[in-house]
Structure formats: structure tokens, C-alpha cells
Design brief:
Oligomer: single chain
Order of helices and strands: HEEHEHEHHEEHEEHEEHEEHEEHHE
Radius of gyration: 25 Å
Strand content: 25-35%
Structural class: alpha/beta
Number of strands: 15
Strand order of the largest sheet: 5-10-12-13-14-11
Number of helices: 11
Distance between the termini: 45 Å
Shape: globular
Length: 364
């Protein structure tokens, strides 16, 4: 299999357009056309990870955290990033990162975590806005089905668990073909009225160019009339964090004990009353302090995340239990999720999960 077959599939499942501005997800090192027999999945790319890839014959490493965040001006082996880049290139091992685009997707890491902790009725804690657009176009009645098919296949009309969604209105359009025109209907110099269908369909903003191109290809008119509308709607399937509910209320201490066991935690830093009964839980793998107030507003009883600072624990003012379960500890299951997604798509391809624990933090 070619490297690009793997990376393009992951790009389609968890689009790079949904990563945060500071992030650097995607294909970082290697040749997209290189033929590979297996991939190695990990959280962080370190020198032992590349060694493991060499030993197991994996031509591609898929990591949750990008190896390269900023620009590299020199590669002289001064730090682990430069040494990993050098070793990966020497051994023809590609490196691909799937980070905040995995975090921000409804089917991504936070949903995976929530299900591990026994939560249901899941929804994005802080949905993103400005990720959706609406296409509006007009065409002769007999061509409407062809144009709908073209834009649906290009990615328009998908809303949650539904596809081929559109709104269609029949009306009458008018135009006059000028001297140099090549009209599909009507005559040069005469005003023509045509029975038309107005087609409206929502689409992800990052697919705009492809959808417009496919629409124009399918359209019979020489000059295609269409509008792209910027929507203020929040996208409930894309955003930060996740919130859900337990099947029944349990004590906070009992729930955190379960989290501690599932994640293999030596300790949990928390604030709040562990004797209270809880049911609604908010989660953000990695660094989630920016979502504390969102968790409070959403009515969560507990917010689980990592990388909390001392003053962060004052923010909820005892309205919720705030628990720091660690950055790596909350993202360690990204390996399982990525592997599951790949195995489901490529059941006969070797997908290996690293045996390395790349967490640099130790507990005494």
C-alpha cells in the first residue's frame, strides 16, 4: 500500500481543516508515494519510536502529537526533534500527525474517552462556528437531479447521520443572451424565461472549492448563477471537549476511582466535594483549562482534563469538581482509536500500536 492511501483516508475521516490554528497536523516527513507494509501508531514521536518502527518494518509512524510544531532552520542533532527527523529520513520512515483535528471531531478522542468512562447522550462541549456554508444555485428543472447528485458526491448535503440533504424551490428565471453568448436555451438578443429549481445545501467550508467545481461541471448553463452563504450556525459535530451522562448517579469519589483505574493513574489532582452524587461529566483530553467555564455553564458535575495550573482550580468556585488526570494519561487511548479506525478501513493491513510509553512525566 502507498503511504498516501493511509494519510488521505485519515484526512478524509478527520479533516485537517478542523485542527487549531497553532497545530501542525498532517504528513510531516516522508514520501507519499512510498510503498509500505505496516504502520506504527503512537502518542509522541521519539527516538525509541523510530527504532521500534525500524525493528518492526513499519514504513509510517502515525502519532497523536506532531513532531514538528514550528519551523526547523537547522538539522544538526541538537535536540530530540532534529535527531528524530534525521533518523526517520535515513530509514525512509514517514511521520504523520493527527492531533487537534482528532480532538475536535465528534467521533474523535473525547468521544472515545467518554465511552470508556461509561457516558452516554454525548455532545460536543463547545461547538465551533463558521465551519459551515450554504450553496444556493439555480438550474433548469430537468437538470436538478444531476446537479444534486454532483454536489452530494462532492460532500454537500451531509448533516449528522443524514446525507443528500437539500431544499428545492421551483420558480422562473430570466436572462438575455448577448452577441458573444452560447446559450443552452433561448435566443441571442431575446429575453428568455426558464422554469428552474433553486437548490440549497449545507456543506463543510473546507470543501467549497471542490463542490463548486463539481456543480459547474454538471450544470448546463454557460454562466452558472450561485451563491455561497456564510452561516453563523454552530456545528454540533465539530468542537472542543465532550459532555455526557452516566446511566445513574454515583458518588464523585467512586467515579474518579473508576477513572483512575481505567487510565492507570497514580494520583488525581482535583478540587471539590467528592461526597456529592454526580451524573453529568465533561471531558477534554490533553490541555482543557480553556473549557472550565463552558463545563460549568453546561451543568457538568465533573470536568476531567489535564495540564491544570494552580489558579485554574479556583475558576469553578466549587460549582463543579475539577480533576486533572494528566495530559499523556488522557490522550494515551488515541493509539487505540487511530488503530481501530485504520483496521476497520484496511482489515488486511498491519497496524501496530507502540509498546513505548512516551510520557516524560514520572511520579514518585
Amino acid at each position: 500500500m502507498l503511504t498516501k492511501h493511509i494519510t488521505q483516508f485519515l484526512d478524509s475521516e478527520f479533516p485537517l481543516a478542523y485542527q487549531e490554528d497553532y497545530d501542525n497536523s498532517g504528513f510531516q516527513i516522508g514520501d507519499p508515494e512510498q510503498e509500505i507494509n505496516s504502520v506504527l501508531v503512537c502518542v509522541d514521536v521519539t527516538e525509541p519510536i523510530i527504532d521500534e518502527a525500524v525493528e518492526t518494518g513499519c514504513g509510517l509512524v502515525i502519532a497523536h502529537h506532531p513532531l514538528i510544531f514550528g519551523g526547523l532552520k537547522k538539522i544538526t542533532g541538537r535536540n530530540y526533534v532534529e535527531r528524530v527527523v534525521e533518523k526517520a529520513i535515513q530509514n525512509r520512515i514517514g511521520i504523520y500527525a493527527i492531533h487537534t483535528n482528532l480532538d475536535n471531531h465528534y467521533k474523535g478522542l473525547n468521544k472515545h474517552l467518554a465511552e470508556k468512562f461509561g457516558l452516554s447522550n454525548l455532545r460536543i462541549l463547545k461547538p465551533k462556528s463558521e465551519t459551515l456554508r450554504k450553496l444556493v444555485t439555480f438550474c433548469p428543472v430537468e437538470h436538478a437531479a444531476k446537479i444534486r447528485k454532483a454536489i452530494f458526491e462532492a460532500g454537500a448535503g451531509r448533516i449528522g447521520n443524514y446525507d443528500s440533504c437539500s431544499y428545492n424551490t421551483t420558480g422562473e428565471g430570466s436572462f438575455r443572451a448577448l452577441d458573444e453568448a452560447n446559450p443552452f436555451v433561448g435566443n441571442i438578443g431575446e429575453v428568455h424565461f426558464e422554469k428552474e429549481v433553486k437548490i440549497e445545501a449545507i456543506f463543510p467550508a473546507y470543501l467549497e472549492q471542490n463542490i463548486v467545481e463539481k456543480m459547474i461541471e454538471a450544470h448546463p448553463y454557460e454562466e452558472v448563477a450561485y451563491d455561497i452563504l456564510l452561516l453563523g450556525n454552530s456545528d454540533k459535530y465539530i468542537g472542543s471537549g465532550m459532555i455526557g451522562e452516566l446511566d445513574e448517579e454515583i458518588s464523585a469519589s467512586g467515579f474518579l476511582g473508576k477513572v483512575k483505574s481505567i487510565c492507570g493513574l497514580p494520583t488525581i489532582r482535583y478540587t471539590g466535594d467528592l461526597t456529592r452524587l454526580i451524573k453529568k461529566i465533561a471531558i477534554c483530553g490533553g490541555s482543557g483549562s480553556f473549557l472550565i467555564n463552558d463545563a460549568v455553564r453546561a451543568g457538568a458535575n465533573v470536568f476531567l482534563t489535564g495540564d491544570l495550573k494552580y489558579h485554574d482550580f479556583f475558576i469553578p468556585e466549587n460549582k463543579i469538581i475539577l480533576a486533572d488526570i494528566g495530559h499523556y494519561e488522557s490522550e494515551q487511548f488515541s493509539k487505540d482509536l487511530i488503530a481501530q479506525v485504520l483496521i476497520r478501513k484496511f482489515p488486511n493491513f498491519a497496524v501496530l500500536k507502540t509498546k513505548q510509553n512516551t510520557n516524560p512525566i514520572k511520579y514518585l
